[in-house]
Amino acid sequence: MAALAEEQTEVAVKLEPEGPPTLLPPQAGDGAGEGGGGTTNNGPNGGGGNVAAASSSAGGDGGTPKPSVAVSAVAPAGAATVPAAAPEAGAPHDRQTLLAVLQFLRQSNLREAEEALRREARLLEEAVAGTGVPGEADGAGAEAASALLSRVTASAPGPAATDPPGTGASGAAVVSGLATGPAAPGKVGSVAVEDQPDVSAVLSAYNQQGDPTMYEEYYSGLKHFIECSLDCHRAELSQLFYPLFVHMYLELVYNQHENEAKSFFEKFHGDQECYYQDDLRVLSSLTKKEHMKGNETMLDFRTSKFVLRISRDSYQLLKRHLQEKQNNQIWNIVQEHLYIDIFDGMPRSKQQIDAMVGSLAGEAKREANKSKVFFGLLKEPEIEVPLDDEDEEGENEEGKPKKKKPKKDSIGSKSKKQDPNAPPQNRIPLPELKDSDKLDKIMNMKETTKRVRLGPDCLPSICFYTFLNAYQGLTAVDVTDDSSLIAGGFADSTVRVWSVTPKKLRSVKQAADLSLIDKESDDVLERIMDEKTASELKILYGHSGPVYGASFSPDRNYLLSSSEDGTVRLWSLQTFTCLVGYKGHNYPVWDTQFSPYGYYFVSGGHDRVARLWATDHYQPLRIFAGHLADVNCTRFHPNSNYVATGSADRTVRLWDVLNGNCVRIFTGHKGPIHSLTFSPNGRFLATGATDGRVLLWDIGHGLMVGELKGHTDTVCSLRFSRDGEILASGSMDNTVRLWDAVKAFEDLETDDFTTATGHINLPENSQELLLGTYMTKSTPVVHLHFTRRNLVLAAGAYSPQ
Questions:
Q1: Among 2.160.10.10, 1.10.4030.10, 3.40.630.30, 1.25.40.500, what is the CATH number of 212-369?
Q2: How would DSSP label each residue in 5-18?
Q3: Residue 106 — pLDDT band, cuts 50, 70, 90?
Q4: Strands (DSSP E) along 425-473, which ranges?
Q5: Cα(297)–Cα(626) distance, integer angstroms
Q6: pLDDT surpassing 70 at residue 219
């Protein structure tokens, strides 16, 4: 009991010069005891696992804990704070921090903790000869202390928590933050200051004055430790190399140790994974403090915590090593700039880790892929009128029963059985079907009966549309759902529309001529068209920069185009004129796409956000912000409730149209993503990137389920066949490849363990899924499309060698 009486309280505080106060989510610790109500009860062997503004813990040996004050950075979620060494004697910054904490404890009526800290502070003061009267601070120090105080006191402290006897801790004062998410053992809240993407605030975090000559030694020491650790831990801990390398380099540059930074870069940049080479090239150009201000890569890296997913065993090993070596410089970076997502269970293998890493901000946090996604299809509206017509038609043909049966099935199965994973029908408002839409659906059903059933033994034919002499530079292509029109966007700012059926393109007559037409006649829709204007090609002028995206509306009345001029334009295919210019993006708009139900459309561009629009609103309805680089491609889910975006930050995100939230983040590509497509049943997503790989994702579980290797250049286009049995991919390597989608998605491991830890097991060889490779002479494949009868249409511009 005498030992218990001697215990003191340990206080961990983070002081950052700038930025607004915020409450962070709870931080995960490693204490052996259970955490609850914002306090941590650590067992005798759980020392060092608590993260709190003020808490206490017994030493690892179960003996009497020594009094200590730890002034250290607050750890990112999933990482536990380790008390830093005693502050360097006499530093005014440390004295201001102590004063601020004392003042805060006094105002919060935490007398015991204040007394304990005062005794500790005096010890520190006496240890330094001639540093001034204890507790005295200069004017600037007092201001800083009161500023800190005013920010910290914004949150009311929790009650002083006293541990039960025998736990080896007593009288711990805890300042609890807002608890978000499920509480785990050893989790407590903490008060911290949020990052601001303001340049000066962002850069000030690098103002730590570590010994510049020691950086190489620190990094080499950690590298040696990781390389000598067991194989099962080595793969996981190797993920630390890249983010630590970048932050240590930036810290050296910011503190103007240019020669040390150059030497550090040259010595270690060769150790980084090959897929980070582009980022390292940008980094190597930052050699002076001035270069860092306003540099996007630098701000991305600083404002978004790099996420590492590591097993608890590997993390404990790393923590023990850094504590033993007292390697505070590296530990500070781990706490300040990394988010360590700890999971229980077996460490992942090198192959499993390599499949998932490579994005600009590391892997996705597991929490990011937990929310429910309604990936099922909406109930098809019942169209009763056409079935009578079908009967009449059927009588004239011998194949009547054969024709009618599948039709009844396809209508019945969609309308009577509600998909359990489908969103509520009225979750988002969708446009009502017009008569012309119903007629189109009937035509679609007729075509469906003649659809070829594809499979490994029955591959589709491919019809390739080559744009010859496209000196204007073909930059985008789209084909209508019924495969009657093709649109091309060009670098000379034009959009060109071709009819690929014998039916020519005609404009509506002039107003004077329209007034003469009998509006009651049955063929009024034919009469309003002007035969004099009939031609196979129409050119649409209006953009003032290259056109990078094009999309037809499902009813074929409109065409969208997005351009380098920052606008999205809506064109009428009745008059072939521009109806609206949507201005919201400030920079080039790389892609745009209509919803499968029309009315809504999405656009993505260089300003790193995707925007959701409605054709009758001149401002966006939703802004999807979260990517760290350009949004290169956008795609609507078949049920129109979600939008997928692929970005140059090497991630794919899925956004909920209803509330604008990001509900999935997929990492694994090693280059910017340029193509996306959903499977017809809405369950899966396929993505293609500059790394030449096609990745397959299970949307419901938020998991990667396949990797298709074969292309040697950027995958520009992806499309599933109408029944989802075959995936076609088109690339800049001048090939179209067909993959067996049924085989790729069968026997998926989507148990709870896989979902929780990301232990995905991809087949070693994707060649057995490859059904065919089709070369063009010298034409990169820009666009792919499956007709309603499962014929593949491909398009690209011939590029002479």
A1: 1.25.40.500
A2: HT---EEEE---SS
A3: confident
A4: 462-467
A5: 15
A6: yes
* pLDDT above 70 coverage of the chain, percent: 68
> Rounded to whole angstroms, how far apart are CA atoms 186 and 471?
65
Three-state SS string over 526-550 comes to: HHCECHHHCECEEEECCCCCCEEEE
**Rounded alpha-carbon distances, angstroms, from residue 220 to 332, 623, 781:** 17, 44, 46
Neighbours of 270 (CB within 10 A): 8
Cα–Cα distances in angstroms (integers) from residue 656 to residues 117, 372, 593, in the given order? 49, 10, 16
Q: 563 - beta bridge partners?
A: 547
Confidence of residue 505 (pLDDT cuts 50, 70, 90): confident
8 A C-beta contact, residue 669 and residue 687: yes
DSSP SS3 for 603? strand
The residues pairing with 792 across neighbouring beta strands, listed in sequence order, are 462, 786
Nearest to 477 by CA among 409, 526, 579, 548: 548
Q: Which pLDDT tens digit goes with each residue over 456-479?
A: 888 999 999 998 888 888 999 999
Three-state DSSP class for residue 703: strand
Contact 348, 311 (CB under 8 A): yes
| Integer-rounded Cα radius of gyration of the chain | 31
Does the 462-749+766-796 domain belong in CATH 2.130.10.10? yes
367: left (phi over 0), alpha (psi -120 to 50) or beta: alpha
d(CA 566, CA 630): 13
Measured between alpha carbons, how far is 224 from 644 in angstroms, rounded to an integer? 41
Return d(Cα 715, Cα 709) in angstroms, integer: 11
- Phi, psi torsion values for 251, nearest 5 degrees: -65, -40
| Neighbour-count burial for 497-512, b at 16+ CB within 10 Å, e otherwise | bbbeeeeebbbbbeee
The answer to whether the beta carbons of residues 322 and 333 sit under 8 Å apart is: no
Q: Is the pLDDT of residue 523 over 50?
A: yes
Side chain identity, residue 387 = L
Same fold, 212-369 and 462-749+766-796: no
- pLDDT higher than threshold 70 for residue 189: no
Domain map (residue ranges) of the chain: 212-369, 462-749+766-796
pLDDT-derived band at 384 (thresholds 50, 70, 90) equals low
Q: Whose CA is closest to 632, among 692, 584, 583, 673?
A: 673
CB 639 within 8 A of CB 423: yes
Q: What are the tens digits of pLDDT across the range 743-780?
A: 888 867 655 555 555 666 676 667 888 999 999 998 99
The interaxial angle of helices 296-303 and 241-254, nearest 10 deg, is: 120
3-class secondary structure, 306: strand
Dihedral sign of CA atoms 413, 419, 424, 427 in order: negative
Going by their DSSP bridges, the two strands 462-467 and 792-797 should be labelled as parallel
The Cα 315–Cα 414 span in angstroms is 49
Instruction: Supply the DSSP symbol for 184.
Output: -
Answer with the residue of higher pLDDT: 634 or 454. 634
Answer for the pair 666, 364: CB distance below 8 angstroms, yes or no. yes
Longest dimension (CA), the chain: 109
Q: Give the closest residue to 714 by CA, choosing from 744, 685, 741, 675.
A: 675
Which residues 6+ apart lie within 8 Å of 19 measured at CB? Answer: 193, 194, 195, 196, 201
Q: Which tens digit of pLDDT belongs to each residue from 46-78? A: 334 433 333 333 333 433 333 333 333 333 443
* Cα separation, 487 vs 383, whole angstroms: 31
State the Cα–Cα distance between residues 251 and 248, nearest whole angstrom: 5
Whether the model pTM is above 0.85: no
Neighbouring residues of 457: CB distance < 8 A, sequence distance ≥ 6: none
